[in-house]
Amino acid sequence: MKNLNLTKLRAAATRTKARPSLLADAELNHLEQVMRLIAGAAPYTPIYGLDMAYWRRRIAFIESSFELLPIHQSRIKVLLALLD
Question: Is the pLDDT of residue 13 over 60?
Fold first, then answer.
């Protein structure tokens, strides 16, 4: 069910991709900072609904809503690996 929702989100956003890759840097910087904090907190305790599914949705949104360069795609792969 989760994969189906992410697939729908990505498909819908792909049709309306409009955000430039420059803006993806700010989003990815933020997520990288958060992931460093999460990685340092063992075990991770979600705060106000910010569970791992939330962070995966944020990453999926970036993937589907921005024109990404290869470096952005590499950074996303690292973030997803941190969530696993």
Answer: no
